[in-house]
Structure formats: C-alpha cells, structure tokens
User: Which sequence fits this backbone?
C-alpha cells in the first residue's frame, strides 16, 4: 500500500472513530431554570424516558438566568450533532420581544423537536377579595382602577404575561407587584398582602382545597378535569387562553435523520403511561407532537406574545 493510501485509510479510520464517540457520548439536555422547579422536573423526567429509547445517557444541566436565554445561547451555538439539546419553556417565545437584542434567533438558530407538555394556570385570590368569579373581578377592578394588585413571581414569565393578557382583554387596570420567585409571591397572597395571582396548578391546588386561596378561573381554553366546577376564564373573556408550554429543541441545521431520531424518542418517552402519570402529578399535560407541528406553533407563539409584551411595557430585569 502506498504512503498516500495509508494516510487516507488512517484518516478515514480516525474520522469513523470520532463519529462513533459522538454517537455514543452522553446527550446534554440544558435547562434555563434552577433545579427543583417545574421545568427542571419535566426535563429530568424526559431525560430518564429518552435515555433507554436512544440507548444513551441523557444528562440534565441547569443553566438558569436571563429568562432561559443563557441555556438557549449555549444550545444555539452548539454543533448540530444532536448531543446538545434544550428543554425550554414559554419564555423562549416571550423573550423574542421582551429583550431588545438576543445573542441568537429563537427560530432560525434552533431545530424544534417536540412540545413536551403544557401547563395551564389558575387565577387565585385571597379569600377576603369581594369577587367570587372572573365576571365579578372585572366589575370590581373597573370600579376600583389601580386599587387591586397581582403578585408576579418573575417579570416576563408566562404567568406575568397571563395577567397582562387578562388586563388587555378585559380592559382593567390592576397593579403588578413583582417578586423574585413564585414561592414568596404565593406566600404574600396567602397572607393577604397581595390580592391576586396567576399561578401554576401544582403551586396552589393544595391551598385551594384547604380554603386558603379562592380560585376564580383557569387559563386553559376549557375547564380542567381536576377542577370541573371551576370555569375557564374564556367563558367570560372569549378567546382568552394562556397555558405555559415546555418544548425540546436542538441546534439549527441538524441532519434530518438526527432530528427524526430525537423527535421520535421524545414522543415515545412522552407516550409512556408512567411519564404521563408523573406529569399529571406535576399539574402538567403531556403533549409529544412532531417537529412539523411544533415549529409553526413556536412561531405563532412569538407573534401572539409580542402583542402582550408590547402592551405590558415590560423590560428585562
């Protein structure tokens, strides 16, 4: 064998070895939220389900900060080999308008793989509030503009924007009281320091059942099975809907076969009864759709939330 042929053979063997290593390396699933929250729990549940399907280890890495943008930037700039993924949430769409500039394009720099789950929220109030449903709340807020207030766990979050969309569609003026986190916000509503809050089901359902909070309506388009007697806000404000969502993304320009393999693995894992049961316990609804369904959904969400962000006048912290 000539020296040139030996060099070509050696180079080919090394390239094949490198591809094998990439193919067998652990997959990094980045999460732009701290450990212990709903997004982190969903990511770890998904990782545990996808690993066996792919025959690989999926490791969750928490990169909180800037409304999820820190984790998103890492994935946007990662090689498109399918080894670095992102479990993002509604803020991925909200941030497109909330932040004047981003170090990535929320559509062009990502491959949308699957919507993993959605999470409707509940509009709750301290029991002392003299309104027992959405219609009465709107009437009270119009009679007392600027005298009612919303607790907000994080500026620019889906729950913040749920409140802004409510105010925009109902034409009421309710003051926002920002907090650094959902837990202190809930505590102040429980204590009566703040009157109202949009909160994830899992964060308030025990307080509702105990009578410590009053539920006024759910943000899903229809009533929730867990609260069949609680009306959807849309029953009073037609067209209102504000469910948070959690989605799986990869970097842009991933090979079609890699995209399909990861998307199929996610949907297979999400379809497992054990995973759906775990999601139910967290107050979220499993979805598991295709890239062809998820990609246009993300684009529509960016357009939808742009209107609400502009109305709110919110700015990054």
Assistant:
């Amino acid at each position: 064998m000539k020296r040139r042929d030996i060099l070509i053979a050696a180079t080919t063997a090394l390239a094949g070895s490198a591809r094998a290593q990439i193919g067998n390396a652990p997959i990094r699933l980045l999460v732009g939220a701290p450990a212990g929250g709903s997004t982190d729990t969903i990511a770890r549940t998904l990782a545990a389900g996808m690993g066996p399907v792919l025959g690989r280890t999926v490791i969750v890495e928490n990169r909180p900060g800037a409304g999820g943008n820190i984790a998103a930037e890492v994935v946007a700039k990662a090689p498109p080999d399918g080894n670095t993924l992102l479990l993002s949430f509604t803020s991925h769409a909200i941030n497109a308008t909330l932040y004047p500039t981003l170090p990535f394009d929320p559509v062009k720099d990502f491959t949308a793989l699957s919507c993993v789950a959605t999470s409707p929220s509940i509009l709750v109030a301290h029991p002392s509030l003299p309104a027992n449903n959405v219609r009465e709340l709107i009437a009270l807020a119009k009679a007392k503009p600027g005298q009612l207030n919303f607790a907000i766990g994080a500026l620019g979050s889906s729950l913040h924007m749920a409140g802004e969309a409510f105010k925009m569609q109902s034409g009421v003026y309710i003051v926002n009281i920002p907090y650094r986190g959902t837990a202190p916000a809930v505590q102040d509503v429980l204590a009566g320091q703040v009157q109202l809050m949009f909160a994830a089901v899992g964060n308030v359902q025990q307080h509702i059942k105990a009578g410590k909070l009053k539920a006024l309506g759910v943000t899903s388009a229809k009533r929730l099975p867990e609260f069949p007697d609680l009306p959807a806000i849309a029953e009073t404000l037609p067209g209102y809907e504000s469910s948070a969502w959690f989605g799986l993304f990869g970097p842009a320009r991933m090979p079609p076969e890699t995209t399909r393999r990861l998307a199929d693995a996610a949907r297979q894992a999400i379809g497992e009864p054990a995973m759906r049961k775990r999601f139910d316990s967290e107050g979220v609804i499993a979805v598991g759709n295709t890239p062809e369904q998820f990609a246009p959904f993300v684009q529509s969400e960016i357009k939808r939330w742009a209107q609400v962000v502009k109305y709110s006048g919110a700015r990054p912290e």
User: Anything to note?
Assistant: The first helix runs from residue 3 to 24. The CA atoms of residues 221 and 238 lie 9 Å apart.
